[in-house]
Specification:
The mean pLDDT is 93. Strands 1-8-3-6-9 form a five-stranded antiparallel sheet. The protein has a four-stranded antiparallel sheet with strand order 2-7-4-5, with no helix packed on it. It folds into two domains: 152 residues, Jelly Rolls (Sandwich), CATH 2.60.120; 107 residues, Orthogonal Bundle (Arc Repressor Mutant, subunit A), CATH 1.10.10. With 275 residues, the chain is an alpha+beta fold. Helix content is 45%, strand content 20%.
Length: 275
């Protein structure tokens, strides 16, 4: 059972490296343009200020990730001798897709706690501070790989206490979630999802809501609407989308879409920024 591949197939990420080397001064990330950010502190000291103004002192090699657009600052003096590698992140399906919404605003971790990422990080730093041809393209791919490995780490260590990622970290609930992710067109029932999880119907429903934060039916509807939004952005006709995400007709999809989003699919699409 692969808990991440289906998610990443629908909401894949693309990284673009924009800094490698020494850093001194103040860098403001304004949280616009539907971009997240990754900052890797290779050596030296760095101060990170989040959107609420709180400051975190980083005194060892560390990772900072904002998978969604989030205003933040990086600060360092010349004496800090900070060495940074930074990239932007952009997810298919928009910045507020189910994968990014399941993660905290900021993930800040010392690299020493991320043993499963050591090989990728070593390679990334070698490329960033080297001068081999193709460096930029390799760095972008390594950042993407690193984020995927980070997601794997968060699931394996049960680092997130609630929501989809907590459900995926649960050996029983993850079977139901992977089923819904992989086959949104299937007419899932709570009894069928409970059986897939090896639990009674009542126990499954209660445990799912306590862990994920919504009922199984609401989760399935939210997942389907997220997929529909992605397909609308891609220009697919709503009649095809309805069939692909488990609705018997375009009008049935439109009713659920309006209930969840507050507008019709057409109105929602018109409100999306170009590009």
């Amino acid at each position: 059972m692969d808990r991440l591949s289906t998610l990443l197939k629908h909401f894949n990420l693309h990284a673009s490296t924009f800094h490698q080397g020494g850093f001194c001064g103040t860098s403001d990330m304004d949280g616009q343009y539907s971009l997240g950010h990754v900052h890797l502190l290779r050596s030296g000291r760095l101060r990170f200020r989040g959107k609420q103004g709180q400051v975190t002192e980083l005194t060892e090699p560390s990772l900072i990730v904002a998978v969604r657009p989030q205003a933040h600052q990086l600060l360092a003096t010349e004496a800090d001798e900070a060495q940074l590698v930074c990239a932007t992140l952009q997810f298919e399906g928009g910045a507020n897709n189910p994968l990014t919404l399941a993660l905290p605003d900021f993930i800040i971790k010392p690299l020493g706690e991320l043993q499963g990422l050591t090989g990728t990080l070593d390679w990334l730093f070698e490329e960033a501070f080297g001068d081999e041809c193709g460096r930029d393209v390799i760095l972008n791919r390594l950042f993407e790989l690193m984020v995927i490995q980070l997601l794997r780490h968060l699931i394996a260590t049960q680092s997130i206490g609630s929501g989809m990622m907590a459900g995926l970290a649960n050996p029983q609930l993850s079977r139901a979630l992977v089923g819904m992710h992989s086959e949104p067109q299937h007419n899932w029932t709570v009894a069928e999802l409970a059986d897939r999880s090896g639990m009674s119907r009542a126990s499954f429903a209660a445990h799912f809501r306590q862990t994920v934060g919504v009922t199984p039916a609401d989760y399935l509807a939210n997942w389907r609407i997220s997929l529909a939004q992605k397909r609308l952005r891609e220009g697919r006709p709503i009649a095809l989308i309805a069939d692909e995400v488990g609705y018997e007709s375009p009008s049935a999809l439109a009713r659920t879409f309006r209930r969840k989003v507050g507008t019709s699919p057409r109105q929602w699409l018109q409100q999306q920024p170009a590009g």
